[in-house]
Amino acid sequence: MDLEISPSLTIPASELSWRFSRSSGPGGQHVNTTDSRAELLWNLADSAVLTDEQRQLLLKRLGRRLVAGVISVTASEERSQLRNRELALAKLARLITAGLVPESVRRASKPTRGSARRHRVAKEQRSATKQQRRRPAAE
What we know:
The chain is of the alpha+beta class. The protein has helices at about 50-60, 80-100, 115-135, and strands at about 5, 10, 15-20, 35-45, 65, 70-75.
């Protein structure tokens, strides 16, 4: 089952690997016998579907989550392994989508006339307060 991130980016199932283990949480005694926790692994450092720019961007932004270039996503919220697999795929898709969003460029702007006036008034008040604290001049 391929993972479609966007119309231009689809991760083939051959690049995804799964691990399953016993999950804690709801399920009663059934939890002790079923490997319902799903862990999805994707080696983005060696992925053939990413461009070099996309790879560098993801490595920079997801660096804390990576271990040797491999990103790991786990899901154990549901009792069903199938549902946890779907959740893990959705989590990975969200992570990659968020990692590939281009940074917005901040444009410098001038302070508004009102904010400049308020700033000036505050400075005058602060100056007046400090002048009142001074010792009177001896005449």
